[in-house]
Amino acid sequence: MCCLIGLYLALSLPGLSGGFILDDWSNLTGLEQAKTPQGFWHYVFGGVSSTLGRPLSLFSYALQAHDWPGNPYPFKLAGMAIHIVNACLVFAVCLLIGKLQDWPVRVSAQFSIVVTAFWLFLPLNISSVFYVVQRMTLLSALFSWLGVLGFLWGIHSYKRLGGVVATFAMAVAYGLGILAKENAVLTGLEVAVLYAFLLRGRYGSKRWDAWIAMVCVLPPALVLGYLSLNIANYTRAEFTPWQRMLSESLVLQDYLFKILWPTPGRLNIFNDGFPAYKSLGDSWLVLEANAFWVVLSAAALWWRKKYRFLAFGLFWFLAGHVLESSIFGLELYFEHRNYLPSAGLIIGLVGELFAWRARRANTASNASDRLTLAGLASIALFHLAVYGAEINSWRSPAIQAMSALVERPDSIRAHQEAAAFFANSGDYANSALILNAIEKKWPGFPGTYSQLLMLGCVDDHVMLPDKTGLIARFKSGVFDRGTLDAWNQILDFKKQGACRNLSWQDFQVYTDAITQNQNFAFQMEDWLAMKSLALDAEGKLIEAAHCLDAIDETAASLDFLLLKAKFYAVSGLAQQSLAILEGMRSRSSANLRQWLPIRAEVEKMTEQLRFKLSKP
Question: What is the pTM of this model?
């Protein structure tokens, strides 16, 4: 195992020289505030990625706040370290699976090494490890593996207390894993699949059957049931739940091929160009993919006793995708969603090979064993070659940007990332060229015009659309995640005295237009906060304070209300500021996650305002 980790480090270390990309920026924005004790906890409990906010993952980022945003190396190194820990847990899990199959110790160790090697160097896992924001996936998987390991340990090493050990392990997997990322709730389904296909025949009992139903199946079933009943809150405009289900059959098929037969051209982090299908009749590919999964699942169930490991691998893979690759309105395609599901496929394939060898132990020839070993070695070398090629693309933002343009011509995100790379490199002409190509191929995005305006702040030669066209686009354009980032950058440039061709008045006119766009309504707090900061930069404090009145205080977040109270205070409206703070306090018990990090600041500010108002 030590040799395996050494080889992994030797091949993977070059990938640490890459930069932050895509969602790293939006998810880690605000990390600089974690450099202070109060800001540390504000950042940890201020997550907006989900209802719970993923505080455990944010805690791990906050520990590295001093390296943000200029030094991505330690962030990527931490991801690599967690992946190595997870690989060690995979090794331990496979050892126990081998023991529970009554394989000799030597065979169990060989099985564990082969599985761990393939999963550790799986090219598809690279985006989970070196894409900094996917540390959430790595940490969630770590606790899931602890849950699986505890279950296996309980069923293997204990009789009466086995259920206690397994329950404690699952409590850790659910409790801590969900605080890293919500996928950990599926750990129970994966354990249920493991028990049903590999263990129940030999170790099953009514007691373990009941434990699986209550501890492993019921919690994820309740979560999935709740989400399904509230499906209207988890639906995207681009497709209905049924249409997403149809499209995901092709996505899952593509994932499967990337795991079994990865190639550099097939692997890429930019997959937003994957088509969404509206009906079974849209393409024969939709029919083929849905039929593929139905037939494969039926065959696995039919031959589950003969090919137990293969059936296990398939259903572990599918169970791991129930949340993110089914009816719920997430983006269609992300490679990192396979981090944990891929392990089940590898365990299933390698396990079936070792089970076949065990069945032929008395009849197999040395030539047969050598042929099997040669086949495994050939596949491993192929995977290593692809892994090395992929690591090479992650070691440099330039290589990554260029390969994305070549390999993903239908990805707007790949083009946007390339434009951002050229802009950050000072090559504004090529950045503008790519942005204009985006506008021609994907018209209607406010983010494209926003990025052109941002380029105009640093290069007077950038050709900009006319004012009427800009306003029309901002009022009605399609939502684009890069729009807000671009305007925050424009605001920074304005504060530094740049953007001579963009007046403060035009700044307000354009951002006013965006706040009228219903496609950006869910970001309203962010847009109003930015507009207030812009008015503050102009010295218009009263206007900055009243700008935030556009959102009803009963519907606003506590962070937004705190900003509003600060603007009212510095504008001389102390009484109104104090009223806002008192209102925040009355709502604190209903939102402790937002309240606790800012409580000390609110109390200090309240005390100062009361003292000020007490003076004659």
Answer: 0.88
